Amino acid sequence: MSIQKPYVVCFGEVLWDIFPSGSRAGGAPFNAAYHIYKKGTEVQMLSRIGHDDLGNRLLQQIGSWGITAEYIQIDQEHPTSTVVAHIDEYNEATYEIINHVAWDYIEFLPEHEKLVSEADAFIFGSLSARNEKTRETLFRLLDHAKLKVFDVNFRPPFIDVNLIKELLHKADIVKMNKAEMRQIMQFLSEEYRSEDESALYIQQHFNIREIVLTKGSKGARYFTGDQNYGFPAVPVSVADTVGSGDAFLAGFVSERIKGSSPEPIMAEATALGAFITSKAGACPEYEAEEFHQFKHNSTIAL
Q: What does the alpha-carbon distance between residue 295 and residue 289 come to, in Å, rounded to a whole number?
């Protein structure tokens, strides 16, 4: 298959999020892939599903959105992943994540080397590396990626301190929230200080080029080299926060690979994150024009 440039590879979990209102396709890297595709950038999802009804339904859903499933493997032994999502009174989500599912067993295939080495960005998280098989595949792929984007995305109880440190050492760009920044400093036996001091310490310790810090209603920060930038949140009426960070990352990466400057990169990221926060679910149906109008109105409001 001929892949048009630019394109992004998203690696890791694709699954069904089970909500009280019903099931929705999800998984952090897949959510990011969905919104990158909506932004008009080609995306390849590298994952694994079970040879079962849930897997077939996922393929149908992905296909209906127009996203290719060429690199989604079919597992004959392990089931398609499901995650039970709970939404609290503050519209925040917590998750019950089943272990030993298909995406825990993603295989490295010869064609992956070219796929990843020619991609403009390679997005990965920590959850997908919880088990040995997929972890080995991830590390092999990281050796070939030219722009490695690590979405920290801690999901208890699957937090392996040594693994997190290894992935941080591999990353070019790291996205984290404030709680994750504090945890990483704790992993390093360092006291959390200010955002600026902590970001600088993490950058220098792991030799990370860029850190993106998301802070919900308090906006976001972008640390790149010896420069840093602050951006306000876009005010919205919150439907739920499911997938808002993934949408933020999609907005960031889709602009970052164009070589845009920090201001338009973060304007796109904060707007897309807010737009998805105003809708129910991580991958709501929408047209590009609807988001562009939202962003335009938000810019006027700011």
A: 10
CA-closest candidate to residue 241, choices 213, 264, 215: 215
Q: How far apart are CA 265 and CA 179, in angstroms?
A: 23
Q: How far apart are CA 265 and CA 210, in angstroms?
A: 13
CA distance 105 to 77: 10
Locate all alpha helices (DSSP H) within 128-243, ordered by sequence: 132-142, 161-170, 178-187, 195-206
Which pair of tokens denotes residue 99?
């272990």
Per-residue pLDDT reduced to its tens digit, 75-124:
999 999 998 877 776 666 677 888 899 999 999 999 999 999 999 999 99
Amino acid, single-letter form, for residue 116: V
**Residues of the chain whose pLDDT is less than 50?**
none
**pLDDT given for residue 127 in this prediction:** 95
- The residues, any chain, with a CB within 8 Å of residue 206's CB and separated by 6 or more, are 165, 168, 169, 171, 174
Q: Give residue for tokens 């009280």.
A: 20
Residue at 227: amino acid letter: Q
Amino acid in position 259:
G
Query: Would you call the peptide bond into 6 cis, given omega within 30 degrees of 0 as the criterion?
Result: yes
pTM here is 0.93
